[in-house]
From TrEMBL:
Catalysed reactions, as listed in the record: (sulfur carrier)-H + L-cysteine = (sulfur carrier)-SH + L-alanine
Name the UniProt record assigns to this protein: Cysteine desulfurase
Annotated NCBIfam families: sufS
Keywords of the record: Lyase, Pyridoxal phosphate, Transferase
Transmembrane stretches, start-end: none
UniProt xrefs under Pfam families: Aminotran_5 (PF00266)
A GO term, aspect molecular function: cysteine desulfurase activity
Biological-process GO terms, alphabetical: cysteine metabolic process
Role summary: Catalyzes the removal of elemental sulfur and selenium atoms from L-cysteine, L-cystine, L-selenocysteine, and L-selenocystine to produce L-alanine.
EC number(s) given by UniProt: 2.8.1.7
Organism in which the protein naturally occurs: Prosthecobacter vanneervenii
InterPro entries documented for this protein: Aminotrans_V_dom, Aminotrans_V_PyrdxlP_BS, Cys_dSase_SufS, PyrdxlP-dep_Trfase, PyrdxlP-dep_Trfase_major, PyrdxlP-dep_Trfase_small
Annotated Aminotransferase class V domain residues: 23-393
């Protein structure tokens, strides 16, 4: 692959910040957008802008066609059995909350167990805290080992028939750990547990097939895979979606409404009340087209090379502590702590040299407490990043050590 040519598809990367060429290493928070996505959004607003589904005029027909075409693109991207198993959401957070407030409220009660892990993003913790408070269910967690992997030796003890839901992250946004999703899902199925996979850091970075994985739900965000912000999708196995009540009520999700009551459409429209983020969905479709033209297998290999090169080179910086696996396959990020600088101070220093990273707890406060750090600095990569940019990052880290000494 000609990665330098592909990089030129991203106009935002061709600029200077504080007198230095921009090195954007914050894609785990939000990826950049290629011209193909930007142009698709512009075309929609200039030519097709109209509400979807409920009108018969030409603009609405074109908008609806593009909107629903994306549902099929998402289904094919993740290997869903039907495009009707795809619900558009605002992102991973809303997808998880949707499951908690529909399937969870309907199916969980006192004595049931929700199994999570110690590396979850707050988006896969707080909704279950709220659900446990409402239902009386109990939360349990698989611990994280010192090397940033799950303590799977405890899985047989924790994953019992009392577990009704097992929700876990595919790729940790703070460690880069890639969890053995298929293996974990199979073990959950063996005790009758429903599974939810947080795919925020995996969809768009690697091939995903929900039928092969066997998961019941998968949530992900468009803005982490070259799409617009505020859009994402939830995959749900149809048998479960059909049994779930609506979460939001309003237009589009109904079959019939009287003053006394209402009936609802089948999935997915049952869960998509009101005017959706039409441009966001269409932009997500353009992002999927773009990623598939490159090839998810190629992106995964490039991610792997960048991350392992970064771990090797950054490990030579004095005073650095890298969290997560130090060898083998890992996600496209490296989170670290330097003994000479707080993460917030370090990211400000790096920004003064044109390097964009993120510092803090990364919405994983329990994980930071587990590793006894106030937070970390995170450099996260995507296919538009280069080995030369990692060299520049390490150069800046050495400069920071002299600056903060």
């Amino acid at each position: 692959m000609d990665w330098h040519r592909i990089r030129s598809d991203f106009p935002i990367l061709d600029q200077q910040v504080n007198g230095h060429p921009l090195v954007y290493l914050d894609s785990a928070a939000s990826s950049q957008k290629p011209r193909a996505v930007i142009q698709t959004l512009t075309h929609y607003y200039e030519r097709d802008n109209a509400n979807v589904h409920r009108a018969l005029h030409e603009l609405s027909n074109r908008a609806t066609e593009a909107f629903e075409a994306t549902r099929g693109k998402v289904a094919r991207l993740i290997g869903a059995a039907s495009e009707d198993e795809i619900i558009f959401t605002r992102g991973t957070t809303e997808g998880i909350n949707l499951v908690a407030n529909t399937w969870g409220t309907q199916n969980l009660r006192a004595g049931d167990v929700i199994l999570l892990t110690g590396m979850e993003h707050h988006s896969n913790l707080v909704p279950w805290h709220l659900l446990a408070q409402r239902t009386g269910a109990t939360l349990k967690h698989i611990p994280v080992l010192d090397d940033g992997t799950l303590d799977l030796a405890q899985l047989d003890t924790l994953l019992t028939e009392q577990v009704k839901l097992f929700a876990f992250v595919h790729v940790s946004n703070s460690l880069g750990t890639i969890n053995p999703a298929k293996e974990l899902i199979a073990k959950a199925k063996a005790v009758g547990a429903v599974t939810l996979l947080d795919g925020a850091q995996s969809v768009g970075h690697m091939p995903i097939d929900v039928q092969d994985l066997g998961c019941d739900f998968l949530a992900f965000s468009g803005h982490k895979m070259c799409g617009p912000t505020g859009i994402g999708a939830l995959y749900g196995r149809m048998a479960l979606l059909e049994s779930m009540p609506p979460w939001h009520g309003g237009g589009e999700m109904i079959l019939n409404v009287t003053l006394e009551g209402s009936t609802y459409k089948p999935p997915p429209h049952r869960f998509e009340a009101g005017t959706p983020d039409i441009s966001g969905v269409i932009g997500l479709g353009a992002a999927i087209d773009y990623l598939q033209a490159i090839g998810l297998e190629n992106i995964q290999r490039h991610d792997h090379n960048l991350a392992n090169y970064a771990v090797q080179l950054m490990g030579e910086v004095p005073g650095i502590r890298i969290l997560g696996p130090l060898s083998g396959h890992r996600g496209a990020l490296v989170a670290f702590h330097l003994d000479f600088a707080h993460p917030h101070d370090l990211v400000e220093f790096a920004n003064s040299h044109g390097v964009a990273m993120r510092g803090g707890h990364h919405c994983t406060q329990p994980l930071m407490r587990r590793f006894k750090v106030p937070g970390t600095t995170r450099a996260s990569f995507y296919f538009y990043n280069t080995l030369e940019e990692i060299n520049r990052l390490v150069e800046v880290l050495h400069l920071a050590r002299k600056f903060f000494a």
